[in-house]
Design goal:
This protein is an alpha/beta fold and 258 residues long. The chain has a single domain (2-257), classed as Rossmann fold (3-Layer(aba) Sandwich). Helix content is 28%, strand content 20%. The protein has 7 helices and 12 strands. The protein has helices at 9-26, 41-52, 80-87, 109-122, 159-165, 185-189, 204-212; strands spanning 2-6, 31-34, 62-65, 67-69, 99-100, 128-131, 153-156, 179-182, 193-198, 230-235, 247-250, 253-257. The protein has a 9-stranded mixed beta sheet with strand order 5-3-2-6-9-10-1-12-11. Strands 4-8-7 form a 3-stranded antiparallel beta sheet, covered by helices on one side. α1 (9-26) crosses α2. It is globular. The N and C termini lie close together (5 Å). The structure holds 2-phosphoglycolic acid. Residues 37-39, 132-134, 164 line the site of 2-phosphoglycolic acid. The site of 2-phosphoglycolic acid (PGA) has 7 residues, from loops.
């Protein structure tokens, strides 16, 4: 794992946006896996700003979002499709038919998960998967459990995850759906490269466990230790519980190799 630590979340976002744009320039048919939540908002702002400056072309890009709520329409303001449209897609020249979501309104949710996995395969697999992390160590909606599901699947959301999403539903916990569809751990681990971003003090504890703790299904993000191409991008706050040995300073943030 390569860990890069930035002074602020804006610096982190700008470094990652630069990296995504570089990928796009080298590989116009890039297949991107994308997260939602509060953490990636500065990244999406930075990508939109770079696109406005003419640095990027998304016309041949495919995107796959990590997860989506069950039972709400794509046009619902709390859906992840709405989030992506508001924060990224409507600002860049990505084709709507190339932006892929699990359909939480599908009649047969198992068949929908299989369709989504097949769509990823047909796109050639995910080149770059960007992730956030929950305070409990979840990635996507793969919540801590004795067993994890490998592929896209139906998830019963924990109260913690529903609370964390209440902001997208006007602050009303009762309006947050109780279920979601999520990529599974194998879906994520099959990405050719993975970047996990975390900011703020409330992520410090779980980041220390994810990076240096045991590999366990009780901390789904710890499984990333098994992937050969993972970068963890942190601000100073999220990095504050990492042991400091091995941290060196370099351009674009302090780098900590494990
Ligand atoms: P957050 O969520 O970015 O809103 O903290 C991250 C996640 O739960 O994956």
């Amino acid at each position: 794992m390569k860990i890069r630590i930035f002074r602020t979340e804006e610096q982190l976002a700008d470094a990652l946006a630069r990296c995504v744009v570089q990928h796009l320039q080298e590989q116009p048919k890039l297949v991107l896996g994308l997260p939602t939540g509060r953490t990636p908002l500065p990244l999406y702002r930075a990508l939109v700003a770079r696109h406005a400056k003419g640095e990027s072309d998304y016309s041949n890009v495919d995107t796959f979002n990590l997860d989506e709520f069950v039972g709400i329409a794509p046009s619902h303001p709390g859906s992840y499709r709405s989030y992506m449209s508001e924060h990224l897609f409507r600002h860049v020249n990505v084709s709507r038919r190339r932006t892929h979501f699990l359909d939480g309104q599908a009649k047969d949710l198992d068949a929908e998960c299989a369709r989504f996995e097949d769509r990823i395969l047909r796109a050639g697999g995910i080149d770059l998967q960007i992730l956030g992390i929950g305070e409990n160590g979840h990635i996507g909606f793969n919540e801590p459990a004795a067993e994890l599901s490998p592929w896209s699947h139906l998830v019963k959301l924990t109260l913690a995850s529903r609370r964390a999403n209440a902001g997208f539903f006007g602050g009303k916990l009762t309006d947050v759906p109780k279920e979601a569809l999520s990529m599974g751990m194998s879906t994520i681990m099959h990405a050719r490269s993975i970047v996990l971003m975390a900011t703020g003090k409330r992520k410090a504890e779980i980041i220390a466990k994810t990076v240096s703790g045991a590999i366990t299904t009780r901390i789904p993000a710890s499984l990333l230790q098994l992937h050969s191409k993972v970068e963890i991008l942190l601000d100073e706050d999220a990095a504050s519980k990492l042991r400091s040995e091995g941290v060196v300073t370099s351009r674009g943030g302090r780098v900590h190799e494990r």
